[in-house]
Each structure stands twice: as C-alpha cells, then as structure tokens.
Amino acid sequence: MNRPILAITLGDPAGIGPEIILRALASPDLIPCRPIILGHPAPFEALLPRIAPDWRILCLKGDDFSKPLPPNTLGVVTVGQPDEPLVLGSPSPGWSRLALSAIDEAVRLAAAGNVDAIVTAPIAKAQLRPFAAGFIGHTEYIAAQVEAEPVMMLAGRGLRVALITTHIPLRSVPDALTTERTLATIRGVDTGLRRWFHLRHPRLLLSALNPHAGESGQFGREEIEILAPAVEQARAEGIEVTGPISADTLFIPQKLALADAVICPYHDQALIPLKMHAFGSAVNVTLGLPFPRTSPDHGTAFDIAPQLIADPASMSVAIQTAVSMTQSPQESA
To answer: Which helix (H) or strand (E) holds 52?
Structure first.
C-alpha cells in the first residue's frame, strides 16, 4: 500500500483536537501513512509525557515532506505564534486564529500537491468568525478557497448520508432548496463515490422534506416541484437515484441495504440517524474538492479537554478514510 502524506490540522488547541491526534497517531493500529501536523508544537509538548512518553516532536519547515519521519515522531509545522498561554478548555483568540491558519496552510499544500489529503481536527466556528467573516464550517470554507462546489457527506458503519443544505437555520431550508441545488448534490455524491470510494454504480436514495413526502402536495409541494424533477433529470443522466422517499421510513434496514448513500435536504435529517448509528466512529467527508478531506464527526469538547479522556476513534477513522481515498481501486481492495 502507498503511504500517502496527510496534512492534519490541530483544530482548536484548547479542545480535544491535539489529544485525539496524538492518541490516533500513537496507536499500534494506525494505518500506514505519513502524517504532518499543521499548527504548533506547544499542545503536543504538554501532552506527550502523559499520553505517549516514548514519542518526540520534530519541527518541520518547507513544503517537501517526502522524507519519512523516524519512528515515534510527530512532524509538526508551525503556522503561527500566539501571545497568550494555552489553557485546555478555554479557547482564546490567538490560538483560535492559529487553528484557522492551519486550515489555510493545509489547503495551500493540498492544492499544490505537496500533501495527498487533509484531515481536520475539530474547531469552534464562533471562535473563527472574527478572523474569517461568515465562517460556517470547514466544508464551505475549504471549498471557497479552491472554488469548488462541495457536498458534505458523513459515513460510519456502512451508512453514508449527504446534505443538500448544510449549516443554515431550519426555517431557511425550504427557500434554499431548489431543483438545481438538489441535482448538483446528487451529481456530486455520484461523482464522489465513483472517484474516491471506487463504486462503479452508486445507488442513491433521496429523502423527502415534508411529512409523508408531502402527501401528494397536502403537506407541502417541495417533493413535487423541486425534488422529483431533480431525480428525473439525474436518472436521465444515468445516475441511479430513487426518491423522494418519506424520511420516517427511509432509514430502515431494508431500504438502506439497497443504497450506497442517502441524500437529505437538511442537516439534522441526515445527522441524527447517522450519529445514532455510528457516533464516535463516523467520519465527515467533503466531496467535490480536488483532494480528499476528512474530519471526525464531533466537536471540540472544551468541557472534557482538561481531563484527557477523549476517544480518538473518530479521528482514527478520519485518517483511515483519508488514506483509503488516496488509493487506487487495486490498493484499496
């Protein structure tokens, strides 16, 4: 198997990002790869004696990461120098700004071909907005930098869900839902599953928006006027998609067994079943980018960060998925 170079952003250093990165990389079950951490060595200097005392830090410079690191070594690229002290559980402007700089550097390296994939540790969106106006999430922020049309997909334990709309208020969803946007999401999921997950003929299910799929228009006409036309056009293009299907019966095992991914109109409609099914072991994948990008399925967990009890399972799956996405069909088989 090829050992791809992964740019791993440290997330908000006051959260559990550095801890789950270190635990995942120090695990004997780590999938073969060459991880490069973007951020700052300070969080790991504090964690190493308590989590991985036989590991050391190697500060890296430049853009060439082709030389393998020695065993038990964290390769860290410093992207900023905050003035304030780092306190686990208490985010601060300087360290949050560094988290954003780590994302920027990861995108630059991936776009230039210096790394093969990006894995992002959790950030606190509100902490980044003073430095990136309107910041609503990794997905949208990274896609804007490379002028891509992203699709947010989460996957875990055999279930994949993708979103037509992402981080917007629930009351804004009907107005944001269009045939064009739905069709673009269907196309993006189909293309992404073919390109990155090596599925030759992806099978997609599209969830309805309204109760009982609108009940022939009685409970809303979005299914008739927006979703069904998108499905019809996608099927005319050769995409295997079925829907819209009432959401209250969509996630039953019999239907999921016939699908490679489920597409939902809004955030919680997709993420509630996904996290009930695979919380802590699911991964967030951004489709539509020119490079793989993954992340854990949870947030910064500032409340438990000082206790050093974070579960690295989702970060481990994010790393594993990023590696898999860089492989050829033969290597990933």
So the answer is: none
